[in-house]
Design brief:
The complex is a heteropentamer of chains A (267), B (272), C (52), D (437) and E (741). Chain C is mainly α and 52 residues long. Chain C is built from one helix and no strands. By secondary structure, chain E is α/β, with parallel strands linked by helices. Classes of the chains: A mainly alpha (267), B alpha+beta (272), C mainly alpha (52), D mainly alpha (437), E alpha/beta (741).
Chain lengths: 267, 272, 52, 437, 741
């Protein structure tokens, strides 16, 4: 039965029914519904999987552009040469600020002349050292401009290890490909390699939530009361409301979030 | 929620000394990467974190008097700590009150530009980026990395140069200290003021100059006990952390609204 | 908005406010789901009973 | 051409005429869209807002459309919860108007914020202490409710209704509409209120600031109340306008009269409450802040005490008295005047609670700052109006918005209609259902 | 398999479900927001190592020490140098916004040669080599023709190594026409010369004074060394020092003063003498000083007592006699009184009579060369270059009279009279000016009667500007040889204006030169070398930096470390040695000044019937009005009652405005005998009725879009008035009328 016939019949019927109460179109639809349910479900599954593949596999490939570092760098080899570990090159300045990726000045002592015969070394000396040009390193862990991160507070005061956030980069023999988010310009290491935002290690992601996660644990440790359960927090709060000042809860300095104040990390 | 060693940074501006020269305004703009446009004469569109107002006593010649009043963000404490007019209204937690320093922050990347905070601020201390900030070619070289330039469509305001606090902290940490000294953290306007009219420090610390100058009364939300000191719109209950000093009665009176025939300001405690 | 977002605090404000919100959303969600599922089932069954 | 889509038993204007009408209003709409795009791409410098006027025409328009859109929630409340069955004849239209108002409000908000792409922060990073957060949440949720309430009407379109799934869906939704309506009323109460709270909590602005109950300033309750009171008036007003434009009676008098009566009493009680609030504020709150009532109504070229009198006396008590008296609301002209005044009154109230607040200096050394919107602001404010007219026109044409219409306007020339109806609709059906080939 | 509508819908539904379960929509939403936080067109300042460089600010003669904060090689902030003798950490708004000049769009980035008509703004870039040889050729030609004296040089200063290089060059070249831009310093120098026989700058020991009688000096409006004055003013607040401000308008200084005494404009000299009258009559003066160290007191006393009774002074000045008497008594009885003059910032020299009368008040209370008083500060004598050798052409040229008439029979004591230059050129009576060099000055903007100045400049066939910025004069030059910006070059800063002890500041390169510019000192040396002969011999240095280092000698090391050189052991010589006049004493009434003649106010331009009002320019610290214009930040700080859009406001008393039917904000036409301009009206109670005040520093036609085209240049409405004794510009205002526009 063709749809055309169906419809024509239906409309004729409708027109004849005096325009009163709604007539029932079900007579026809029932027949339509008898169509096989299989293809319908199949199409659903096809659509589902196609979009899942698009979202989980193709999308990240499109989202990130891959960039090579101007020259390669061997952390292992340099670590063997220095005495102070990471801080030998990634040091703190007099004023407490963190120097970040080394400047040419620091390399020039050893690399005035070409050391060895690796092509990267030759390129480094010829292209950069002798021309006095800084190497335009692509910084994997560069946070956006709105972030203020005090390395000294974490390393000197809290005694944290570089690895906690940066991973085992010091044990690498060459630099990995730098991936840049085409929309935001962020390094992929900020969001993390996993497009779904899952992480296994502390250094897998460098989003605000990762800072928060660690800080929450630290705060809990300091309080020595264990991680505060939601119920305990709520009870603390109720105590606070009923009789202010008596609650033992130690809150962060932010009135809004009761964590660290926003601009401790944002500028 | 009082912290041990919690600070309450505040400012005292001596209006007898202030000459209205505008150094504080410019120092602030230079310190905080404040943008500028071709025409800045329309003051309701001109981003000036710290604005110097000219007050007049309204008397005819030759009894006229004028006084200049620099107005940074007041970093209001509100009736209970952190209930500043703007902080509680921000729908996205883009502005916050820090109980450790008493400073009201503004996070530009969080702000989505609803401008409710501007509506709530009786001091007009908040400014909106109506335009993209544009520096003439080459001039972006002087931008400071310590303060992020704001994008179009967000609100900004005075931060008491909080980045200087951060830098002072970093230095202290490097030197193995946890606390910073009074002179290690001073705002750009304080430093620049040629007349030395601005004093900045911790109001909770009785040894700091600001405390000695205004003698804040902790029982009354830091109301000044120095008879020459006053705060702007004291009766609204905003509890600003910026105090003014003036030996002139008319100037002190210009700091708040008074009913006609109201002999002296009655200290009403706001029920908020 | 969610207990896992940075701004969340387990306090009266959040519990009451967000509680109210999620309560309303849940009602709307359940209501609409009920309607849709029932409609789908009705349509499959060709249920015509409610018609007068 | 489109008669297959037109509900049965009603007569609509010829399709070309309809299209012409839509095109004309559409041109206005496009103008608004152009202005909207300017605001999005070039930024809010396209407006005449400034650092003193962070809130201006748009926020007023927002508050006003939500207030007048309050007819939907209040009529729904009366119909589904309080069981005022007479209102079933107007509830569809009330819902449609509400839907238009709320979608417009959301659109305006999306234009109004400086960073539209970050708009979702208000949900994700919500600050529950902010009245605006409450507004955003309840507004969007209630918009969802209105959509849910509007869907069954859409599903009643002759062609859509033929699809069994949609048919059943519409039916099921009707069945549990009371649950939705109750949720809607709950949400509406809060967001109407929190819109009032938006102004009332501004303790830095004596003109706006109100004491209140717990966390809610009095304006919270006044806004809800006034929206419930004046919203139905707007529904009546739009119904009346629609009837005038279509030259048909569309809603039975019983429904209008009932709504008018309830609205009248609401306006009366609201006006009394508003007077009391104003009185307390002017004699207690304001003097405690060192100011007097007249400080807010003098020394400027526009805002005089007239605006207060206009709002409360002329646009409050007068419509209230007209509507609560049987004689008054039965008189067509008086009813027109009353609903018009009531709607004007609530709009003035919202204007005052947005723009006058911004205009008044709080620092003694500042001056009044008045404000004139730019054409972009006006165009984007008219945009929802045009959009509303178009949506009403389409809904009216293709959906059974007014259940009473066929009854009130029996069609005499049936055969001719029938002839016309059959042929083109076949084509249309073909377009809608791809042939199973 | 048939793909029907239902299958398609099903596919879409599946797709929607899958998409919702994939990171795509959520990550895109998040990233689009992050994109708005990282808009590529919003600059991100590069982080780096912070460092600080101490230098001196040369944007005005104030000589403040500055500390420039740098991030790597970028200068990011200028701050006042802590513990600097002038400013101790504070800084004015102009100094604070110096980086906008350094990196700003007004910089001249390379030598430019005019193309097309002058002033049209069309330039071609040329190399330094070509530029220097072109100048050398022009100068050589003139010299060959024996017209070396037709070369003029306008300099913003005549102290320090750079101006001395100019002077040296002109001397060896053979032109007497080095002209310094005028200010109140001219009048003070003359007064010190005539009354004390000193060739020195006035120094005021404000820090130790406690009663300041200011005849219109803008103590907190930018007079003298502005930041130092601000600091002194604040110190008086703390120590109880008093400031009395005498001027017809409530300036910021008047508002800050302990007492503001409005006075009829231009009658300050009469008031000074009236005060002297009371002091003498009541024997309140310092008899020890008068008797031992002064000359001509009796004559002067007779004159003052005869002519300046409080009642007649009251009539002249409009100040009632009781106020005058009280003022005189409190001045004389104060332990450390100090009287100063120079209206506003001291932009114009003013009447010499006024200056001597005010200075005589200081002598009356005996505070000359004494703690809390006025010092005659000789320039530190550190520039000891070998004598120049002049050839015949040079000698002949130097014999010629100066074009501006300074040092002539008419004005024998004046050193520079820039205000007379336009008239000298325009009248053509003496000799034409064939080439003009301008450095550190912007005469086309700062000189009054702009039209006449422009006309004169048009007559000069060859104008060279050394400006770092495209200012009005550079814009009208034939050749621009851009100097390094002050943050890119070395320069010594001799004693800042008004300092009681000599200090040498050092301005030093904070950053590398940003553009293809050259130190003006280097250009002069190159030019001399290019010209050869005696010129080349007189400039044997390799570079300016070498010259400076050699000149400073042993001081170099200290100045480079500390940022300044002070003379800690400096003490004013004993009274006996203080005065180098014929009598060896302080001259109360040097006959050259004609100061025993009854007071006649300076006759300003315009007649009372056609121009019933008086227009006075006023100075504001927020409006730079010298060689520099306001950078964008400072412009931003200008109030909306001064400038709105492109309209400038005149200040007018509401009473006077009422008489003219003018309301606040209304447009009006302001006319003077010199010119007319459209202005807006600002009602100000603090200005004397009958007066109209207009700010200096606006109405630029050059610089960038942040400054140009805003307001009007008051010099377009005012012409110079020659002081009969000094020949300096004595105009304090001009008659004016106001009509609704």
């Amino acid at each position: 039965m063709s749809a055309l016939d169906n419809n024509a019949k239906e409309i004729a019927g409708d027109a004849g029914s005096d325009g009163g109460a709604t007539s029932s179109p079900e007579i026809n639809t029932k027949e339509q519904d008898k169509g096989p349910a299989g293809p319908v479900i199949l199409f659903f599954i096809v659509g589902l999987f196609a979009s899942l593949i698009l979202g989980w596999i193709i999308f990240p490939k499109l989202l990130y552009s891959k960039k090579k570092q101007p020259i390669d760098f061997n952390h292992v080899m340099h670590m063997a040469e220095v005495e102070d570990g990471c801080e030998s090159c990634h040091f703190f300045r007099e004023d407490g600020t963190y120097s970040g990726v080394p400047k040419l000045d620091q390399c020039i002592d050893c690399h005035e002349e070409i050391q060895g015969d690796s092509p990267d070394e030759i390129k480094f000396v010829e292209e950069y050292v002798s021309k006095g040009r800084e190497v335009p390193w692509l910084v994997y862990s560069r946070q956006p401009d709105c972030v203020f991160f005090s390395h000294v507070a974490h390393v000197k005061v809290a005694g944290m290890d570089c690895v906690t956030c940066h991973g085992h980069i010091g044990e690498s023999e060459s630099l990995k490909i730098y991936e840049e988010n085409r929309i935001t310009g962020y390094s992929r290491d900020i969001w993390g390699k996993s497009i779904g935002g899952f992480k296994k290690n502390t250094w897998d992601r460098m989003k605000m939530d990762d800072c928060a996660e660690c800080h929450r644990k630290m705060t809990a440790n300091i309080e020595r009361t264990g991680v505060k359960t939601p119920t305990k927090r709520l009870i603390d709060h109720l105590v606070d409301v009923v009789s202010p000042g008596t609650s033992m809860s130690e809150k962060g300095s932010s009135v809004q979030t009761e964590r660290g104040a926003c601009f401790v990390c944002h500028k | 929620m009082k912290h041990k060693n919690a600070k309450k940074y505040g400012m005292v501006i001596d209006l007898d000394k202030c000459t209205g020269c505008g150094s504080c305004m410019v120092a602030c703009m230079a310190e905080n990467n404040v943008p500028f446009r071709k025409d800045e004469s329309n003051k309701v569109l001109s981003i000036t974190w710290l604005r110097v107002y000219q007050l007049t006593n309204g008397k005819p010649f030759p009894n006229t008097d004028i006084c200049y009043l620099p107005r940074p963000c007041m970093h209001c404490e509100g009736q209970h700590e952190g209930h500043s007019p703007c902080v509680s209204v921000c729908p996205a937690v883009a502005t916050d009150y820090n109980t450790e320093t008493g400073i009201v922050s503004q996070i530009y990347t969080r702000c989505f530009g609803c401008r409710y905070c501007m509506a709530s601020c009786p001091y007009h201390a908040r400014y909106f980026n109506w335009w993209d900030p544009v520096w003439p070619d080459g001039m972006e070289k002087y931008l400071s990395p310590n303060v992020s330039p704001r994008m179009r469509g967000v609100v900004e305001k005075c931060s008491f140069c909080f980045h200087r606090y951060q830098l002072a902290k970093e230095k202290a940490f490097k030197e193995g200290r946890r606390e910073i000294k009074e002179d290690e953290y001073q705002t750009a306007c304080t430093q620049a003021c040629p007349a030395g009219a601005i004093t900045f420090g911790d109001l909770n610390n009785p040894n700091h100059a600001v405390s000695r100058m205004v003698k804040p009364d902790p029982k009354h939300h830091g109301r000044p006990t120095n008879p020459n000191a006053f705060r702007l719109l004291e009766r609204l209950g905003t509890n600003p952390k910026v105090y003014y000093l003036s030996s002139r009665e008319w100037v002190r009176r210009a700091g708040d609204n008074y009913l006609e025939n109201e002999a002296k300001y009655k200290k009403t405690v706001h029920q908020g | 908005m969610f207990p896992f977002s940075f701004e969340w605090i387990w306090d009266m404000g959040h519990v009451v406010f967000m509680g109210g919100l999620w309560y309303a959303l849940t009602i709307l969600g359940i209501g609409m789901s009920y309607c849709i599922i029932k409609a789908a089932m009705d349509a499959c069954r060709g249920n015509d009973e409610h018609h007068h | 051409m489109d008669s297959a889509l037109i509900p049965r038993g009603v007569k609509r204007c010829p399709f070309p005429q309809f299209i012409l009408f839509i095109a004309i209003v559409g041109a206005v709409l496009l103008w608004g869209v152009y202005a909207m795009l300017l605001c999005w791409f070039k930024g809010l410098n396209q407006t005449n807002m400034n650092d003193f006027y962070g809130f201006a025409l748009w926020i007023w328009a927002d508050l006003a459309v939500i207030a007048v859109g309050g007819g939907a929630f209040f009529t729904g409340l009366l119909r589904y919860i309080f069981g005022k069955d007479d209102l079933k004849n107007i509830i569809n239209y009330a819902v449609l108007i509400g839907f238009i108002c709320y979608s417009s409000a959301l659109l305006i908000l999306a234009i109004d914020i400086g960073q539209p792409l970050r708009g979702w922060f208000i949900f994700w990073h919500a600050n529950v202490h902010s009245m605006l957060t409450e507004v955003a949440f309840c507004l969007s949720c209630y918009f969802g409710v209105l959509t849910i309430e509007y869907i069954p009407l859409v599903l009643e379109n002759r062609q859509i209704n033929k699809v069994p799934f949609f048919h059943h869906l519409g039916h099921n939704m009707h069945e549990i509409m009371a649950v939705f309506a109750a949720t809607g009323a709950f949400l509406s109460f809060f967001h109407q209120g929190s819109l009032g709270g938006v102004a009332g909590v501004l303790y830095g602005r004596p003109f706006a600031y109100r004491e209140g109950l717990f966390i809610w300033p009095w304006t919270f309750f006044l806004f809800t109340w006034s929206a419930a009171a004046c919203g139905p008036c707007f529904t009546i007003l739009v119904t009346k306008i629609t009837e005038t434009v279509t030259r048909k009676k569309l809603v039975k008098d019983t429904a209008i009269q009932l709504l008018a009566k309830i609205s009248g009493w609401m306006i009366l009680t609201y006006s009394i409450a508003k007077t009391a609030d104003t009185w307390y504020w002017a004699t207690v709150t304001v003097p405690s802040l060192g100011q007097t009532l007249m400080d807010f109504y003098s020394n400027n070229p526009f805002y005089g005490i007239w605006i207060l009198i206009l709002e409360i006396a002329i646009c409050g008590f007068i419509p209230a008295f007209i509507l609560i008296t049987k004689k008054g609301r039965k008189n067509s002209a008086a009813l027109w005047i009353a609903v018009f005044l009531a709607v004007t009154g609530v709009c003035i109230n919202r204007w005052v609670m947005v723009l006058q607040i911004m205009a008044i200096p709080v620092l003694t050394f500042e001056n009044w700052v008045l404000y004139l919107p730019s054409w972009q602001e006006i165009a984007t404010t008219i945009l929802p109006l045009a959009y509303g007219v178009i949506l009403i026109a389409i809904s009216y044409r293709y959906l059974p918005v007014f259940p009473n219409e066929p009854e009130l306007n029996p069609i005499e020339t049936l055969p001719a209609e029938e002839e016309e109806a059959v042929e083109p609709s076949v084509e249309l059906e073909q377009e809608l259902k791809p042939a199973e080939a | 398999m048939k793909i029907d509508r239902r299958s398609f819908l099903s596919f879409l539904l599946g797709g929607a479900a899958g998409t919702a379960l994939s990171p795509l929509p959520w990550k895109l939403t998040d990233d689009s927001s992050i994109w708005t936080q990282m808009w590529p067109w919003t600059p991100v300042p590069e982080d780096g190592e912070a460092s600080y460089v101490n230098s001196s600010c040369t944007l005005c003669p104030g000589g403040c020490g500055i500390t420039v904060r740098k991030i790597d090689d970028r200068a990011v902030k200028i701050e006042g140098m802590k513990r600097h003798p002038v400013n101790n950490g504070g800084l004015c708004s102009l100094g604070l916004s110096g980086l906008q000049l350094l990196y700003g769009p007004t910089r001249v980035k390379t030598p430019l040669k005019r193309v097309g008509k002058r002033g049209r703004g069309r330039w071609e870039k040329i190399s330094w080599k070509d530029a220097v040889s072109e100048v050398a050729k022009t100068l050589g030609d003139l010299r060959e023709k024996g017209q070396s004296h037709t070369v003029g040089f306008i300099s913003g200063s005549d102290r320090g190594t750079v101006p001395r290089l100019f002077e040296r060059f002109l001397t060896v070249y053979g032109s007497p026409n080095l002209i310094r831009t005028p200010s109140i310093i001219d009048s003070y120098e003359l007064a010190l010369h005539l009354m004390q026989g000193a060739q020195a700058l006035p120094g005021f020991d404000f820090e130790n004074a406690n009663f300041i009688l200011s005849f219109g000096s803008g103590i907190v409006d930018g007079w003298g060394s502005p930041v130092r004055m601000f600091r002194a003013n604040s110190a008086w607040r703390d120590t109880g020092g008093k400031v009395i401000q005498i001027e017809p308008r409530l300036s910021n200084t008047a508002a800050k003063s302990d007492k503001w005494i409005p006075i009829n404009p231009g009658t300050e000299a009469a008031l000074a003498l009236g005060i002297a009258h009371i002091i003498i009559k009541e024997s309140l003066y310092d008899a020890e000083f008068i008797n031992n160290y002064s000359e001509g007191f009796e004559d002067w006393k007779a004159f003052v007592l005869g002519e300046y009774g409080p009642d007649s002074v009251a009539t002249i000045t409009g100040i009632d006699s009781t106020t005058i008497i009280a003022l005189a008594r409190s001045f004389a009885r104060a332990s450390k009184p100090l009287a100063i003059c120079g209206r506003g910032q001291g932009t114009t020299p003013g009447s010499l009579n006024e200056c001597t009368a005010v200075h005589a008040l200081n002598a009356l209370v005996g505070n000359i060369n004494k703690k809390g008083g006025v010092f005659a500060v000789a320039e530190p004598d550190y520039i000891n270059w070998p004598e120049v050798e002049m050839d015949a052409t040079a000698a002949a040229g130097m014999q010629k009279n100066r074009l501006d008439g300074a040092g002539s029979k008419k004005y024998p004591f004046s050193r520079y009279l820039l205000n007379r230059l336009p008239q000298a050129i325009n009248s053509g009576k003496k000799y034409p000016l064939k080439a003009l060099f301008v450095a550190g000055a912007n005469p086309l903007y700062t000189m009054s009667d702009s039209k006449a100045v422009k006309k004169a400049f048009d007559k000069v066939p060859f104008i060279v500007s050394f400006s770092s910025y495209m200012d009005e004069t550079a814009q009208n030059a034939d050749l621009i040889l851009p100097n390094h910006n002050y943050l890119e070059r070395y320069e010594d800063i001799p004693t800042p204006a008004g300092m009681p002890q000599p200090v040498i500041g050092l301005s030093r390169p904070v950053v590398e030169p940003q553009f293809n510019t050259k130190h003006v000192g280097d250009v002069i040396i190159l030019l001399a070398k290019a010209m050869g002969g005696t010129l080349s011999d007189a400039f044997a240095w390799d570079s300016y930096d070498a010259c400076l280092k050699e000149t400073m000698g042993y001081k170099w090391q200290v100045i480079i470390e500390k940022g300044f050189w002070s003379y800690p052991d400096f003490v004013a010589g004993p009274r006996e040695e203080s005065f180098d006049t014929v009598s060896g004493k302080f001259e109360f009434a040097p006959k050259e000044t004609g100061s025993l003649k009854p007071f006649k106010p300076v006759k300003i331009e315009g007649d009372k019937t056609n121009y019933p009002l008086l227009l006075m320019p006023y100075d504001s610290i927020r409006l730079a009005n010298g060689a520099m214009g306001d950078p964008p930040f400072v412009m931003k700080s200008v109030d909306d009652t001064v400038l709105k859009g492109t309209d400038v406001f005149i200040e007018i008393n509401p009473k006077t405005a009422g008489e003219h039917g003018l309301r606040e904000g209304q447009l009006a036409m302001l006319s003077t005998p010199v010119g007319q301009a459209k202005v807006k009206v600002h009602l100000f109670d603090g200005i004397m009725p009958g007066l109209v005040a207009l700010p200096r520093g606006l109405g630029h036609t050059a610089y960038d879009e942040y400054l140009a085209g805003k307001g009007i240049n008051v010099n377009e409405l005012i012409g110079p008035v020659e002081d009969p004794v000094s020949g300096l510009d004595a105009a304090w205002g001009v008659r004016a009328k106001l009509a609704k526009a």
